[in-house]
Design goal:
The complex is a heterodimer of chains A (520) and B (222). With 520 residues, chain A is of the alpha+beta class. Among the domains of chain A are: 176 residues, no CATH class; 186 residues, no CATH class. In chain A, a hairpin with a 2-residue loop joins β9 and β10. Chain A starts with a helix and ends in an 11-residue tail after the last helix. Chain B has one domain: P-loop containing nucleotide triphosphate hydrolases (Rossmann fold), CATH 3.40.50. In chain B, β1 and β2 form a beta hairpin. Chain B is built from seven helices and ten strands. The chains are: A alpha+beta (520), B alpha/beta (222). Chains A and B meet through α1 and α10 of A and α1, α2 and β6 of B. Adenosine-5'-triphosphate binds next to β2 and α1 of chain B. Chain A: Belongs to the ABC-4 integral membrane protein family. Chain A: It is a multi-pass membrane protein. Chain A: Its main location: membrane.
């Protein structure tokens, strides 16, 4: 009787049942989306952190660069005599710079020895992170142009303008006599690593995708991030120009933290090679430190800071905070706005469920009074009313989980790319193909590069320098755990139960004598 | 069957109403009693006392040895479920349940298993002449048919007492006579005690005994 009656009642009050169930479903779906997206963002942060610092790094040691100073890449300077002039006077230029990233500076690798000597340090690895920026392009013969302009040529066509309407690859334009020129700027990060140290540092999250990894004893070899290699169209066996020297590419690597996750650097070379190419003998930029126990991390960080007064020492929780800082747009959006929105919608849905249940009980005063009059106990009547609400909640919960799963699936299929960087990098949302513009861009060879030098009016390559920070792309994958599903259904049932309790309480107070009341 | 001693019911609300004033009344086993009186006289209130739907302000309402005024809520509910059948002016059927299911609701609190319940409910419907309409919803039945379903619901549990508050109040004359005849037949067959409130003198005349209640005071009518 319980189920028959319950089913008939819900079917009879189809509209209310639908409204209540849909309300709960929407609220539940929202809760699901918010919680799975926020755990997706958390995972992304963890991936970024691991990709950049490696697994097991407890403390990192760096040194800030003098503001605007020596650490950053200088400017390319060309004079009229640079490059080689062809017979028409157009000059081909090709320059490449290998410098420490702007905002940081290198320090003596004796620091590594000092750090290794600190108590509780279980391992340390030093790296030299560099930014390679190469410029190649053609410039017209300025002499010839001046003459042309003076003789009333085409004054509107200023030098450099031609770059903006160049074809897709941004490299054309050229010396057509109208004063055009074309540049190609290529920028990538180079990390010098000690191939012998694999227990701590960036190597911990690398796995070989093609060819081989760096090995102890390698002197002139480079390993490329697989994603970068693909973009730059460099294969194993090719060479790559690092600071003006062609280095053989012996392999490509991917990240162990997830499919399609870019690694911390575009290019990895042996530390000694990096030092030699950048003319920074015995210098490093980062020291990755593993500590024997989590309890000692802070003590070790303090000890290192005392030992190396100029260094900036960060613990892994500082680093996590750093990433959170740069991902804050997404994570605070999800956690704050999402949570509040969920609470508001959930409260509205609960309110709706309660309202409809109570009004239902009020409308059924005589019906419920009659059941009491013919001997139904208070508990049975309350159970009937509450049962109806709980089943409504259950329907809403199941519908909500389906809706939420669909929404989360949609989000995952959309392939939203989150770009996070530790430290000063940017963070952006983008479509499936937006990776290229992340954080100021790892400027790929074609397309976007035109904007750099052309629009920049020949200024310092600020944007390019930013690109050299370790930006990592992570495709947002919002997981739906069993617990989220259980919690979602639970919430909906809770809503139903709440409505049932309120409605049941009213039903319990009904006097059986209501059965005799004349028509309301 | 019933022994009422000094029963008073006072409603205190915006205005104090003395709905029953010191009522002494005895109703024998198997009696068919009609109660008449002006509107607001206290007929329904008396029926509530007899049916254990409400408690008197003071006095004793003894049904087969139990004082309903002193039974716990639970015991009162049980007494209603087991011994008392109700028929209402507005039938009070559950609109979403079929005729046979409506009859079955009376057996639910007695813990009768579902199969038994269906069988007994159908038998009760047949005894009021509605066997073929068992699967109809109340909305698909005429007023007289609905009241028959309500009578089947009241009687399916084989109660000792049937209490009816204006059971024919909503029916036309022909249907009214049918219902009254049905009640008479069932009364005779089952040896029930019936207390029936009615406005209708034609109905009251068929009762064995007629009571009159006005301003909360009960008197025997000639
Ligand atoms: N719950 C209540 N609260 C307050 N007063 C009530 C309540 N129920 C009944 N009364 C009052 O008690 C008096 C008797 O009411 P009762 O319903 O018993 O009359 P009745 O004889 O059945 O009238 P009718 O023929 O109109 O049904 C009336 O004055 C009524 O207003
Ligand atoms: Mg009345």
């Amino acid at each position: 009787m319980f189920l028959t009656y319950l089913r008939r009642e819900l079917r009879h009050r189809r509209k209310q049942t639908t409204v209540v169930a849909v309300g709960l479903a929407v609220a539940i779906a929202l809760v699901m989306v918010v919680s799975s997206v926020s755990s997706g963002v958390r995972d992304a942060q963890a991936s970024v952190l691991e990709s950049v610092y490696g697994v097991g790094t407890d403390v990192t040691v760096t040194q800030a660069g003098a503001p605007g100073g020596g650490g950053g890449p200088g400017r390319f300077e060309f004079d009229a005599e640079s490059g080689e002039a062809d017979e028409e006077g157009t000059r081909s230029l090709d320059q490449s710079q290998l410098t420490v990233e702007r905002g940081s500076s290198s320090f003596d690798d004796t620091a590594l020895t000092s750090i290794t000597g600190v108590e509780h340090v279980s391992g340390a690895a030093a790296t030299l992170t560099l930014s390679s920026t190469s410029f190649s392009g053609e410039m017209p013969d300025f002499e010839a142009m001046r003459e042309q302009m003076e003789s009333g040529g085409q004054p509107g066509a200023a030098p450099g303008e031609g770059t903006q309407d160049g074809s897709d690859d941004g490299t054309t334009g050229g010396a057509d006599g109208a004063g055009g020129s074309a540049f190609e700027v290529d920028s990538f990060t180079v990390t010098g690593v000690d191939p012998a140290v694999t227990a701590v540092g960036p190597l911990t999250t690398l796995e070989v995708a093609d060819g081989r990894g760096l090995e102890d004893g390698d002197t002139e070899a480079a390993v490329l991030d697989a994603t970068y290699a693909e973009t730059a169209e460099i294969a194993v066996g090719d060479t790559i120009d690092v600071g003006g020297t062609d280095v053989e590419v012996v392999g490509t690597v991917g990240s162990t933290t997830g499919d399609g996750v870019a690694t911390a650097s575009d290019v990895y070379v042996p530390l000694t090679l990096a030092q030699e190419l950048a003319d920074l003998d015995g210098q490093v930029t980062d020291v990755y430190v593993a500590v024997d126990s989590a309890d000692n991390v802070d003590a070790v960080a303090d000890a290192i800071a005392a030992e190396l007064p100029d260094a900036s020492v960060s613990t892994s929780s500082d680093l996590a905070g750093d990433v959170t800082g740069s991902l804050s747009t997404a994570s605070s959006l999800v956690s704050t706005l999402g949570t509040w929105l969920s609470i508001v919608v959930l409260a509205a849905a609960f309110g709706l469920a309660i309202l409809f249940t109570v009004s239902g009980v009020n409308r059924r005063t005589r019906e419920l009074g009659t059941l009491k009059a013919i001997g139904w106990s208070k508990g049975r009547v309350v159970g009937q009313v509450a049962g109806e609400s709980v089943v409504q909640g259950l329907i809403g919960g199941v519908a909500g989980v389906a809706l939420g799963a669909l929404a989360v699936l949609g989000i995952n299929l959309a392939g939203i790319t989150l770009t996070g960087a530790s430290g000063a990098g940017g963070f952006s949302f983008g479509g499936p193909d937006a990776g290229g513009q992340a954080g100021g861009g790892q400027l790929p060879d074609g397309g976007a590069s035109g904007g750099g030098p052309g629009a920049g009016g020949g200024g310092p390559f600020g944007q390019v320098a930013d690109a050299a920070s370790s930006a990592v792309d992570v495709v947002l994958s919002a997981p739906v755990s069993v617990w989220i599903v259980v919690a979602a259904v639970g919430l909906a049932v809770l809503g139903g139960l709440l409505a049932g309790v309120v409605g049941g309480w009213r039903a319990a107070r009904l006097r059986p004598a209501e059965a005799l009341r004349s028509l309301a | 069957m019933y022994q009422l001693t000094d029963v008073t019911k006072t409603y205190t609300g915006k205005r104090t109403v003395h709905a029953l004033q010191s009522v002494d009344l005895e109703i024998g086993d198997g009696e068919l009693v009609a109660i008449q009186g002006p509107t607001g006289g206290g007929k329904s209130t008396l029926l509530q006392m007899l049916g254990g739907l409400d408690r008197p302000t003071s006095g004793r309402v003894v049904l087969a040895g139990d004082d309903l005024a002193r039974l716990s809520d639970g015991a009162l509910t049980k007494a209603r479920a087991k011994n008392l059948g109700f028929v209402f002016q507005h039938y009070n059927l559950i609109p979403t349940l079929t005729a046979v299911e409506n009859v079955g609701t009376a057996l639910v609190p007695l813990g009768v298993p579902a199969a038994d319940r269906a069988r007994r409910s159908l038998a009760a419907l047949e005894s009021v002449g509605l066997g073929e309409r068992a699967d109809h919803l109340p909305g698909e039945l005429s007023g007289g048919q609905q009241q028959r379903v309500a009578i089947a619901r009241a009687l399916v549990k084989e109660p000792t007492v049937l209490l009816a508050d204006e059971p024919t109040g909503n029916l036309d004359e022909a249907t009214r006579d049918e219902i009254v005849e049905l009640l008479e037949v069932l009364w005779k067959e089952q040896g029930l005690t019936i207390v029936m409130v009615t406005h209708d003198s034609a109905v009251a005349r068929r009762a064995q005994r007629r009571l009159r209640i006005a301003s909360g005071k009960v008197s025997e009518a000639a």
